Amino acid sequence: MWVEIFCGLIVYRLFRGFFSDDNVLDVETSDSRALFSVANRFEKLYRGKVYVGLRIPDADTGSRQNIDMVLVTKGEAVVISVMNLSGFVSVNADGSWVCEGGSKHKSERLLDPVVETKRRASILESYLEQRGVALPEGYFSCKVVLPNQELSTIRSSNFPSEVITYDQWVQLKPEPKSMFSGWMKGAFCGGKKEMQESIHQKLNFILSTAPMWDRLELKGNKYALGEFLEFKGKWEDIQSLKNIKRSKVSRLVIQKTSMFGFGFCGQISAPSTLQVLYSPRDYRSEGASASEWKEVTVRSSTEVLFQPENSTKVGKFKISSVVSLCLTA
């Protein structure tokens, strides 16, 4: 009997390897994990606020431009692109990049990331002006971060000063408040005027209410940016979740209940039901107080349907694997 069980497990793993989308989703969550890792480090190092996954309207094209993140400090802001590349990357004479090897196992040509980041910074600046924020000239600077240790830069001296290679990234050190030194000095100081507190507050408010991707946090420190679609599951569970709508809810958190089932050989399995805590959307503040959180209980088999950014595949995630979900207005 054990032979049959062992053979069955092998067949199951082979079947998943051929037909499952887990590898695709792993790549997508890996990119998002790199994004949030960079954001968290910038916030700690420079005591600023980082806005991740912005989707800024472009008046010229009528579309939305994706901006990985914007770091806002008391003095200025930095528009940052994060490129989770692996393999070998070099710069051509025209400024374009060539990435060879890595996870895709092929040569890939990329438009100059620095030029692209500056273009998006210009679009963001126009958007801010439309919303009533006129920033000092040269207030925005740009950076392109290469945080993947499996990436090697060929002739790194050819890369523009705006590019932060992996070696530079790991050497970053915490700086005293309002003090920046080393290779970051030009980006954060540069002789620019100190931004007035009122402008700083208004900028933070506008960025916090700007269009963004939804953010799905999964167990295992995984993240995905994209668009929440809907819940799938038993009728009773969907009815319990019917009040969780984008216009009414900004964030939900999944918590375990005290009910546990028993799996194979008496091992404890996932809870049969889970508590879903959600906070009503409040446009006047950034979050809800503890007393404002509401709660519903659903089966752990309930699924979250989520469309990852830059993917044609819809991800289906068991709600038991979800830590939190942030919804944009």
UniProtKB/TrEMBL annotation:
It comes from the Eukaryota. Coiled coil: none annotated. Pfam families: NERD. Residues 30-147 form the NERD domain. This is NERD domain-containing protein.
